[in-house]
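#onboarding

Welcome to the new folks! Below is a worked example of what a typical request in this channel looks like: someone posts a single protein sequence, and someone else replies with the predicted structure as tokens. Don't worry about understanding the tokens yet, we'll cover that in week two.

Example request:
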Amino acid sequence: MRAASSATPSSREGATVTLTSPAPGAALRPARTRRPWFGALMLRLHFFAGILVGPFILIAAVSGALYAVAPTLEQIVYAHELRAPATAERLTLAEQIRIAEEHVDSGPGADGATLAAVRPAPGPGDTSRIMFAQEGLGSSESRAVFVDPGTGEIRGDLTVYGTSGSLPLRTWISNLHRTLHLGDLGRNYSELAASWLGIVALAGLVLWIVRIRKARVRRDLVRPNRAHTGYRRLFGWHTSVGIWVLLGALFLSATGITWSQYAGANVSNLRAALDWTGPALRTTLGEEADAPVDEHAAHRGAVSAPTGAANPATFDAVLAIAQRANVNTGQVEIAPPAEAGMAWTVREIKTGFPTEGDRLAIDGSSMQITDRIDFADLPLAAKLADWGVSLHMGVLFGPLNQIVLLLIATGITTMVVLGYAMWWKRRPTHAPSRLVGSTPRRGALRDAPWWGLGAVVAASALIGLWLPLIGWTLVGFVVIDTAIGVVKSRTSVS
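Example response:
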């Protein structure tokens, strides 16, 4: 007579155990089947990363929300410096430069100030920026004197930063977001947050897919159910907000990594290896400079000798040549030669879409164009990188870009807070001394097939090499997880 088979869950392991007919003379032996392991692994990864790295992501999200609206705040706070009454008359760049130089010469630090670049007023009602290199300024910083192009009035004198020309408020917010004002040490925080944000988001997506396939009411995983209370309500909001900001979180993670200290170097090396970078503007003058002659050189006006000296009158001539070539936007920067044997450069700095980034190198003695780079001719990957940076900074689409970034940053902040609230809500009611809930079950990898275990190890190694801070913190997670397991096993034995 054949024994009937039955399936009962193991009270200790939670696995399905099947009793089969034994061979003659043999005892009944349970055959253990594998439990789903990948979802459990993603849950544990999502949990530990959210708990341990959550504070860094939270800080990055809050400061990122402030950074998203920084361009608009800058326009409001520095309206006097950036704007001037529109007039029919307009001074030449040479006249504006001389006014700025007189202002600098009459103030402190005049001996160490050198004319470095000029950003002409892009339109009526805007001011020009006459920028100086000066002792005591930090890396990528310059002193900008804001001049009314109509009257020559000095509207302001501020320190500006980088190619974006950010003013002190936006620079302060940017440094808060990138480094917490801790220098290179602080860059580790932002790299950690940017690296793990993408991992946490992808793990959350896996969990969302697993749950929505099993859910009876799937819309509760897309928008929160107001009828739910307690933990289920928190979980509904966490899940719904997460799926709506998923793409934005992945974008911010990817673009943020490109600015990072360690992973960013890997990204730069990969782009260079795949030829995904734009060419560098050649500014060295010499016989090898195969330069076309500018047809309008006869109308160039005053010129400067190739000694590195910046003749104010040359700025007008250089700009005129650039405008006849490929500079078709009012937002430009003109830089004199950094030293003898170098060319003048003119580049478009417009950040709104469609991005303008044309650049020219001009010989200051012959007024010949020695090199030219048109944004339209750049590789698609280089354009995407440029657009990605502008989008991350909130300047690609103006206020609309900033509003979307603000919503995404607010959503990420909300998810982190809800995650901690859920952890607290799951604390056991029979143990008042415990302030937080238990961790997801251990042993997911023990249930994985050999190929699954191998895939996890290989993926972890590759990610750790590509994103070094993830590698180190992942090792930390394993150590913490092992310690928790040892403590639990000793407690259960005692």
